[in-house]
């Protein structure tokens, strides 16, 4: 590093000797350590490969991947004077063919490594792909810091109850199961994204006539967004004891 103009870092937080991910908050400790290892302030630190898989084979999930995005930006805030760049890897998951290609290239057939290659993206494969929780979280965290002007909900007041596209949530406050209906009291079937007041995506689930289980959500206020074939509807609800 003494001969280079900048410090290049590839970062994937796995537990030593495995392809099982560390907790998302581990990024604070690791970023700080990398900065301390490179005390020359004239050399910016660039994370040119930086990611967190969402695969169960890595002990992960879409929710943990999204939490990693939030924790990474939080850690970066406190070290911005040294860390010049973070290149979040990758936008899309690899195809099965690409996974096999890289497995052969690296000579690694470990199932955890294959899961890592297949789920590192923030959007899915195949076809046009679908947003994972991490992609929306990346938009939100970057937007909070002025890097984009895309839609992101950071406060419950961002969603107005008079919004013509809003849905009806009941019971509200809710303890166990939340039902989302339109004005005619018909169930709105579609993908539901639930955010907390910090804009963090907490839950992604499909709405059915049986409703949404909210038991895993901490008590507090939330914003929901329903994506159905004909519209996007939004609203707010309270999770109570």
Q: How would you describe this protein?
A:
The protein contains five helices and ten strands; from the N terminus they run E-H-E-H-E-H-H-H-E-E-E-E-E-E-E. By secondary structure, it is an alpha+beta fold. The protein has a four-stranded antiparallel beta sheet. A hairpin with a 4-residue loop joins strand 9 and strand 10. The longest helix has 17 residues, at 62-78. The protein is globular. The relative contact order is 0.12.
Keywords, please?
241 residues; alpha+beta; four-stranded antiparallel beta sheet; three-stranded parallel beta sheet; 5 helices; 10 strands; globular
Set down the secondary structure blueprint:
Layout lengths: L6 E5 L14 H12 L7 E6 L11 H17 L4 E6 L7 H11 L4 H9 L13 H12 L23 E3 L6 E5 L8 E6 L5 E7 L4 E2 L6 E8 L4 E8 L2
Parallel strand pairs: 1-2, 2-3
Antiparallel strand pairs: 4-5, 5-8, 6-7, 6-9, 9-10
Helix pairs in contact: 1-2, 2-5, 3-4
Count of distinct strands: 10
**Rg value:** 20 Å
Rounded mean pLDDT is 88
What share of the residues does DSSP label as strand, in percent?
15-25%
Brief account:
This protein has 241 residues and is an alpha+beta fold. Helices cover 25% and strands 23% of the residues.
């Amino acid at each position: 590093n003494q001969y280079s103009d900048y410090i290049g870092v590839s970062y994937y937080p796995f537990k030593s000797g495995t392809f099982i991910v560390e907790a998302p908050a581990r990024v604070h400790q690791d970023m700080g350590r990398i900065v301390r290892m490179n005390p020359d302030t004239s050399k910016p630190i660039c994370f040119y490969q930086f990611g967190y898989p969402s695969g169960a084979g890595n002990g992960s999930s879409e929710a943990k991947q999204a939490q990693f995005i939030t924790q990474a930006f939080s850690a970066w805030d406190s070290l911005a004077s040294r860390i010049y760049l973070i290149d979040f890897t990758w936008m899309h998951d690899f195809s099965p063919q690409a996974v096999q290609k890289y497995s052969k290239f690296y000579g690694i057939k470990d199932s955890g490594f294959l899961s890592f290659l297949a789920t590192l993206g923030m959007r899915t494969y195949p076809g046009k792909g679908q947003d994972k929780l991490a992609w929306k979280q990346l938009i939100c965290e970057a937007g909070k810091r002025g890097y984009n002007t895309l839609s992101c909900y950071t406060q419950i007041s961002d969603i107005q109850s008079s919004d013509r596209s809003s849905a009806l949530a009941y019971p509200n406050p809710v303890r166990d199961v939340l039902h989302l209906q339109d004005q005619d009291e018909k169930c709105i079937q579609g993908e539901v994204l639930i955010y907390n007041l910090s804009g963090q995506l907490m839950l992604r689930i499909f709405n059915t006539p049986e409703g949404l289980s909210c038991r895993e959500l901490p008590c507090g206020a939330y914003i929901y967004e329903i994506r159905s074939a004909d519209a996007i509807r939004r609203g707010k609800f309270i999770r109570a004891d």
